[in-house]
Amino acid sequence: MDEYSNIYSQPKTPRLKQDGFQGSADDQQEKTSTDVNEEEKQKAASTVVTKGETHTTPLTVSIPTFENVQTLPTPMTYTPLSPGNSATSPMDQSSLSIPKRRSHARLLDDMLSIAQPNQRVVSELVAPANLSPQRVLSLPTVAEEALINDSVDSDSRTGENYSPECDDDPTENYGDDVLQGYLLDHWDQLLLWRKVKHIGSGNFSNVLLYESMDQSDPKVRQVAVKRLKYPEELSNIDQINTSSRYKETLSRLENSLTRELQVLKSLNHPCIVKLLGINNPIFVTSKKPLHDLMGKNPRILPPCDMIMSYCSAGDLLAAVMARNGGLEFWLIQRIFAELVLAVKYLHRNSIIHRDLKLENVLLKYTFDDINSFKNSPIYYKQNVIELADFGLCKRIENNEMCTARCGSEDYVSPEILMGVPYDGHLSDTWALGVILYSLFEDRLPFDPPPNASVRQRNRATSHRIARFDWRWYRLSNNETNVGKKIVENTLTRKNQRWSISEICESSFVKTIVDTLDFS
Ligand SMILES: Nc1ncnc2c1ncn2[C@@H]1O[C@H](COP(=O)(O)OP(=O)(O)OP(=O)(O)O)[C@@H](O)[C@H]1O
């Protein structure tokens, strides 16, 4: 056991309902770079917010969190540890303001208003179960599409068992354990799956394993069903009202949902999760599915079940934790190479993911299984991961800059923290650097360093990210690890940061990619 090994003894951080969030004006709609004038940039860089409460962990370490806005020193300089530079930050004229973090980055800024204690633990990939989860929260984001859907019926109420065809439903009522759905573009053939078990939860979904009832098509024999969780604000029947806030929340949810579905539908890569079908075709055929479905039944929120390819070995964070870290070099290299292929495919198709993290890398096989076929030809013919969770993805035009401040706290790039327009490709490669570092070091790069002083622990993650304040511990003397170069060239300032193609060309990735038969 080394000094890091205990970090995996903690249970996986559950995803959570998060703090309400004060969206700024520009949280209302994502703008392109041309929309953001100099004055706004200055404002983003110079506003100082002073909500500086601290919170105490059970270890009695008082650690301010991202929610509690911090102000960076002025000028903000890179630390001597920052790889490859000594220059001052481009933002060095102003202090950094970090607006209070929003509930989740899914453009649902005001959906959830359940206050969470803001606690953090030190140098771990996840928080202990007895803390309110906060590790995997997402940052504030802005609505990227039209806001209000005026046509949402003002008399809306919620309900659990909506069926869009309920007036003339030709199907039998199979009960809660049976899912009725359609494969994409096969809308004339209703298929049935039986529930097997719950396999995961996110902020906005529960994920369940279902198996096909007729078992004829092996591709859909076992499927992961991502079931949309409507936020309390929409589903609490007592709170339903006709306010613009309600309509806005619903409309944002609809925008986020349709974007995820449309992008997923368009993707076809072995290392990316597949949308196989849906419980109701309207979700993928309509641009305003909630509007359309609630137009029929305005009092009920329609269930949305995305039928996805199933990765039986769960997510990478859980798998790494379950074995207490210490992944072998070859395994890290293989998993990372596939992840790079997935992101390269997305970027080539003008899509940025914006929520790359260990939890969103799904494993098709356990580590033991992968090890067992390592020397067989299957190893080269079969992908071992699928990238998931496209709830924050975005299709972008050439050279379009993003303004939505979204992602997950530990993986977010400094420029997103800054609140200035950013290149989504480079924010994705930053997150890849965080993932690779975490796999090598069994800790997140911007956690307080091992043996940190109380003062260091009190410093927020965002502060360390903005200062590029990370370093090698376990690999400090390992000059031969070719993967280190990727981390050093991604966890760096954006004008020096590697693009996905450069990562792909690195020997760490290329030597693996060249052996694969499926890419
Ligand atoms: N296709 C799948 N196969 C196996 N497990 C899955 C699959 N999809 C999701 N999961 C599990 O469910 C969890 C939540 O899924 P996902 O991240 O897609 O939900 P979400 O609501 O979008 O989450 P988040 O709060 O991170 O945005 C994953 O971390 C994973 O453990």
- Radius of gyration computed on alpha carbons: 23 Å
Ligand identities: adenosine-5'-triphosphate
| Total of DSSP H or I helical runs spanning 4+ residues | 16
Largest sheet: 6 strands, antiparallel, barrel
Shape: globular
CATH topology of the domain at 311-518: Transferase(Phosphotransferase), domain 1
Cα distance, first to last residue?
Answer: 37 Å
Pairing-aware structural class of the strands and helices? alpha+beta
Indicate the CATH class of the domain at 311-518: Mainly Alpha
Tally of DSSP β-strands: 10
Q: Give the uncertain stretches in residue-range form.
A: 1-124, 127-171
List the secondary-structure elements in sequence, H or E: HEEEEHHEHHEHHEEHHEEHHHHHHH
Q: Looking across the biggest beta sheet, what order are the strands in?
A: 1-2-3-4-6-5
Assigned CATH architecture of the domain at 311-518: Orthogonal Bundle
The percent range for helix content is: 25-40%
Strand portion, in percent? 5-15%
Domain Protein kinase: 193-509
InterPro entries: Kinase-like_dom_sf, Prot_kinase_dom, Protein_kinase_ATP_BS, Ser/Thr_kinase_AS
Biased composition (Acidic residues): 165-174
GO molecular function, one term: ATP binding
